[in-house]
Design brief:
Layout (H helix, E strand, L loop, with lengths): L1 E6 L7 H10 L1 E7 L11 E4 L2 H9 L4 E6 L5 H11 L3 E10 L6 H17 L5 H5 L1 E9 L2 E8 L3 E4 L5 H8 L4 E8 L2 E4 L2 E6 L11 E4 L2 E12 L5 E3 L2 E2 L18 E4 L2 E3 L9 E9 L8 H8 L6 H7 L4 E5 L7 H10 L6 E4 L3 E9 L3 E2 L5 E2 L2 H12 L9 E5 L14 H10 L3 E3 L6 H9 L1 E7 L14 E7 L6 H9 L1 E8 L12 H4 L7 H15 L1
Parallel strand pairs: 1-2, 1-4, 2-3, 4-5, 8-15, 11-28, 18-19, 18-21, 19-20, 24-25, 24-26, 26-27, 27-28
Antiparallel strand pairs: 5-7, 6-7, 8-17, 9-13, 10-12, 13-14, 13-21, 14-15, 16-17, 22-23
Helix pairs in contact: 2-3, 9-10
Length: 536
């Protein structure tokens, strides 16, 4: 049993309890403000702030029992509870002395007040109260104690930069090796960008961005892989779980974020029934089997394949796919990169892994946005594998969608937009109607590439268009097209129209992000026609 105890200068009166715990459990003492403790527990750690306590707890597995033995006020107990309760495992117990000068009802009122205050600030700290199965008061020799039995498992979301240092300490039995790294780099965009019709400042189009240090991590020890990149062990979601490794607040569509770096696994996450022996390489996407996510996430891990394969000759690329999905695109991309079928493994069910290589994604389309120039080599290699040869770009293409009504960000006047581009000599292309190799050939020949913002435009990676024109609504906040043009160079013109469903002021909703819209000819028609005429 793993036990944690918070102490202050009144610790001597609990010596008997501490001695008993030391004999029966793996005991760790967390001592406030460096109070001297002579008890030989094997681990006595000091902290001054809640942040310091959090860091100490992170470096250890979740606790089965956590005791706050300080004689103090309810407010001070509440402050520690907010930190430490996340570190108690599901089914574990957290207990503290009854607050001084307050009855039990006073404590619960403060918990309710705190939850209400935090919810008003946008954080769901009511999670702490919701995760409690039972609260009771117990009479002990040192006085009355209030205990809480926890009914939910909270998982810590680990950042990429902490993989080698934090994971082995927090997760006994898991080793993390660094197979290779690339230093942080400053990248200057090669694109000249113009915006048209924007009703507000469009953020995320930086001329200079910083690519963080990139790592090739090798996880050795039993870990679970679920859909949407979720990779976890015990009460920790590991760095491969997250699409945006350089964001301060990590997000995964597979878990429910509840506070800062804490999340909860939904009931749909099932314990794997299968263990894969051997070495596997992470080719997973944040949304399995979705074309845009495969191109922006899975593909942008391949920069590490050669080094990982050199170190682990039996390595296989692993991709989680939707049940019933035929991984035609995923297989074609891997084959084009030079990875044979025998070195590819697809799964549509959770699995345990014993050896897993996962590199930092070299592409982050959410703020802070960045793209590593390493992506250029990945694109060229895939293009060559798909049959793309050096050509002189001549074509003017407009990338459209055949059934716009069934997709995110559907443009409600698509046919009118297509007609404008057709009148200026553009060929209308529906990428989804062509095999991947044919898509690569078509895009490689584009001198001017225009289209609706989104995954249809991502095939520009196979070419080097001199001019890119993107039509979208102003609720679309990811910047993939900007990152492609930043590395490829050239000129990019963005035409912004209003979304049918706007984001709330100062906030974000999925409905607004995916909102249908109508290209605003009144706002943008003249500027678009003038640009197209000039390009003709």
């Amino acid at each position: 049993m793993r036990v944690g105890v918070i102490l202050d200068d009144s610790w001597e009166r609990h010596r008997g309890l501490l001695e008993a715990l030391r004999r029966r459990a793996k005991l760790v003492l967390f001592v406030r403000d460096a109070v001297a403790v002579e008890l030989d527990t094997g681990a006595a750690l000091t902290f001054s702030t809640r942040a310091e306590l959090h860091e100490l707890l992170l470096q250890r597995p979740a606790r089965d029992l956590f005791l706050d033995l300080r004689s103090t006020t309810a407010a001070k107990q509440l402050a520690i509870w907010r930190v430490a309760y996340f570190h108690v495992r599901e089914g574990g117990v957290y207990a503290h002395l009854r607050p001084e000068a307050q009855g039990f009802s006073g404590w619960t009122e403060k918990v309710a007040l705190l939850a209400g205050e935090q919810k008003a600030k946008g954080e769901d700290f009511t999670e702490l109260a919701e995760s409690t199965r039972r609260v009771r008061v117990v009479e002990l020799h040192m006085g009355e104690m209030v205990s809480y039995r926890k009914d939910l498992q909270h998982i810590y979301q680990m950042h990429d930069s902490d993989a080698a240092t934090l994971a082995p300490r927090r997760l006994p039995g898991l080793d993390v090796d660094l197979l290779g790294s690339v230093p942080t780099a400053t990248v200057v965009s090669g694109a000249t960008v113009h915006h048209h019709g924007a009703a507000k400042e469009m953020i995320g189009f930086d001329d200079v961005f910083t690519v963080p240090e990139l790592h090739i991590w090798h996880y050795r020890g039993k870990i679970a892989l679920d859909s949407h990149m979720l990779t976890y062990r015990g009460a920790t979601a590991l760095p491969p779980s997250f699409r945006f490794p350089d964001q301060p607040r990590l997000l995964s569509p597979r878990v429910r974020r509840v506070a800062d770096d804490w999340a909860r696994l939904p009931p749909t996450v099932e314990r794997p029934a299968v263990t894969l022996e051997g070495d596997y390489f992470d080719f997973n996407a944040g949304y399995p089997s979705m074309f845009g996510h495969v191109l922006t996430q899975s593909v942008h891990k391949l920069w590490a394949w050669d080094e990982a394969k050199r170190r682990l000759p039996d390595l296989k690329a692993l991709a989680y796919i939707r049940e019933g999905h035929e991984p035609t695109v995923e297989r074609a991309l891997l084959n084009a990169y030079g990875i044979e079928d025998d070195d590819i493994y697809f799964t549509s069910e959770p699995v345990f892994l014993q050896s897993y290589v996962s590199p930092t994604i070299i592409w982050q389309y959410a703020r802070p946005c960045y793209a590593s120039p390493l992506a250029l080599d990945v694109w060229r290699r895939i293009g060559r594998g798909l049959g793309v040869r050096d050509v002189v770009p001549r074509e003017r293409l407009f990338i459209s969608r055949r059934d716009a009504s069934s997709i995110h960000r559907a443009c409600r006047n698509t046919s009118e937009v297509e007609e404008v581009f057709r009148d200026h000599g553009f060929t209308i292309v529906y990428p989804e109607e062509h095999p991947l190799a044919e898509q690569a050939r078509i895009f490689s020949g584009a001198k001017v590439l225009a289209g609706f913002g989104g995954s249809g435009m991502f095939n520009m990676m196979y070419g080097a268009p001199e001019h890119v024109i993107v039509l979208n609504h102003d609720g679309y906040r990811v910047r993939n097209e900007h990152l492609y043009t930043a590395l490829l160079g050239g000129t990019a013109d963005y035409f912004w129209s209003a979304a049918d469903i706007p984001h709330p002021e100062g906030s974000y909703t999925k409905e607004a992000f995916a909102s249908p819209w109508r290209f605003d000819f009144e706002r943008n028609g003249r500027a678009l026609n003038e640009l197209l005429a000039a390009l003709s």
